[in-house]
Amino acid sequence: MKVWSWLLAVTSARESATVLALFRIGMGLSTLLTVGTVVVTGLVPILWVDRADGGMRQLVDPSWLVQALGGPHPHVIYPLVGLSLLCGALMVLGVGGRLTALLALLATSAVTDVNNHAGGSYDILLANGLWLVVLAGGDQTLSVTARLRTGRWWPLVEAWSVPRWLALWQLVLMYCTTGLQKLSAYWVPGGEASALYYILQQPEWHRHDMSWMAPWFWTTQIATTVTWLWEVGAPIWLLAVWYAYTPERGGALRAWFSRLHVRGAFAAIGVMVHLIILVTMEVGPFSVLSVSYYVVTASSAEWERWLRRPA
């Protein structure tokens, strides 16, 4: 009965809706970036349209929605692209709630899944984030909807907190499993730690010629080791967030985590890692999308204090 009571309390918890509103905005911006970059670069008819209509290859296994609508042809793909962009913008504005997020999920997944030679694991990360927005809603505050309902852009309202913890779990799971898949001498401490250097020398990954880094090979070894340790240590980040969320419980370990700013250190390393990736590597919207998840590592109360929400 104690376990059941604890589980009921955890799954029923509520908190200020600010953090979920920020997450909704982040997922909306990530949707616009993911689909918008393909539109701006003129690659929609090449990547997401079948070869019979001018695309790069025959798309024999398109997403179920594209199949249901008639196949990966322009009259199907372009409306889906438009719907994805529209819903992404509406999510940023906070219009339409769960329905907008669901339509964004369906349209975006339909086009990003249509060609398995064009995309990456970040498409799945975005889809999972959109599912969480469907679950959470997130338009109760920091939204046009809130403005119309209450006359205020940022009303103080509560929301179900479980989606926030699920988003945090997704973030930690992504990093930890990524690190565990890098069990080679090129990554793990004690090996060559040369993984990042060789990645930066491959034209399909780097944004610019990085051969100038040869004399600075040792710096990439440090970066490789720090990145790997940070990734596999991601569960510590989850624990740090929990400790920060429950300071009233006390304990020596919780006090040490607070004193060493473990939660902030993990976030700072992550931002630096993704900033370097963004500047040096061509990996699509991965960095912006990943950092969008970081908003859930802080509570709504903290965000309201940092953003100086008016009383």
Features:
2 domains, 311 residues, 2 strands, mainly alpha, 63% helix, two-stranded antiparallel sheet, single chain, 2% strand
How many beta-strand runs? Answer: 2
Task: Give, in order, the helices and strands.
Answer: HEHHHHHHHEHHHHHHHH
* Largest beta sheet: strand ordering: 1-2
Helix fraction, binned, reads 55-70%
Share of residues in strands: under 5%
Largest sheet: 2 strands, antiparallel
What is the 3D shape?
globular
How far apart are the first and last residues' alpha carbons, in Å? 40 Å
**How many helices?**
16
Chain-averaged pLDDT = 93
Report the structural category. mainly alpha
Our Rg estimate from Cα atoms comes to 21 Å
Low-confidence stretches: none
Number of domains: 2
Notes on the structure:
By secondary structure, the protein is mostly helical. It has two domains: 13-160, no CATH class; 173-311, no CATH class. Helix content is 63%, strand content 2%. The chain has helices at 2-12, 18-40, 44-47, 64-69, 74-93, 97-112, 121-136, 144-150, 162-180, 195-200, 217-232, 234-245, 252-259, 262-280, 286-292, 300-306, and strands at residues 14-16, 158-160. It has a two-stranded antiparallel ribbon with strand order 1-2. Helix 2 (18-40) runs antiparallel to helix 5 and helix 2 (18-40) runs antiparallel to helix 7 (121-136). The radius of gyration is 21 Å and the shape is globular. The mean pLDDT is 93.
